[in-house]
Amino acid sequence: IASCLVGSEMCIRDRPDISINKYRITIFVNGCYWHRHGCKKTTTPKSNTEFWENKFSENVERDKKNYKLLKEQGWSVNIIWECQVNDIDILENLVDALKKEIKCII
């Protein structure tokens, strides 16, 4: 079942964690484990490995498809990873990038 952002044509299976509809900006806060960031939190269970590898691969492909769809519809896609949420430098960089993006739109 698709989820849609109110007041827009964006309709994807997994909604962004934050969306700023006025500026067509999305922010996804992705879990490193489920979305396969590649950091130390990106582990694979030892049992039923094939199942998990397939599951993770499907997640990554779905993410790529959703991001592509959003971009095609004019949305900005921004991703912050679970392992980065406490890193003030990364968060400040994201905020600065968003401010620049909004200034370009205004």
What is the 3D form?
flat
Strand content: 15-25%
**Helical stretch count?**
3
Mean pLDDT: 89
What sequence of helices (H) and strands (E) makes up the elements?
Answer: EEEEHHEH
Uncertain segments: none
What structural category characterises the helix and strand content?
A: alpha+beta
As a whole number of angstroms, the C-alpha radius of gyration is 15 Å
Determine the fraction of residues in helical runs and give it as a percent range. 40-55%
- Could you tell me the number of beta strands? 5
How far apart lie the N and C ends? 34 Å
Identify the strand order in the major beta sheet.
3-4-5
* Main sheet specs: 3 strands, mixed
List keywords for this structure.
single chain, 106 residues, alpha+beta, three-stranded mixed β-sheet, 3 helices, 5 strands
Fold topology:
Layout: E1 3-4, E2 11-12, E3 18-20, E4 25-30, H1 32-35, H2 49-72, E5 76-81, H3 88-105
Parallel strand pairs: 4-5
Antiparallel strand pairs: 1-2, 3-4
Describe this structure in words.
The protein is α+β, with helices and mostly antiparallel strands. The chain contains 3 helices and 5 strands, in the order E-E-E-E-H-H-E-H. The protein has a 3-stranded mixed beta sheet with strand order 3-4-5, with helices on both faces. The protein starts with a strand and ends with a helix. The model has no long low-confidence stretch (mean pLDDT 89).
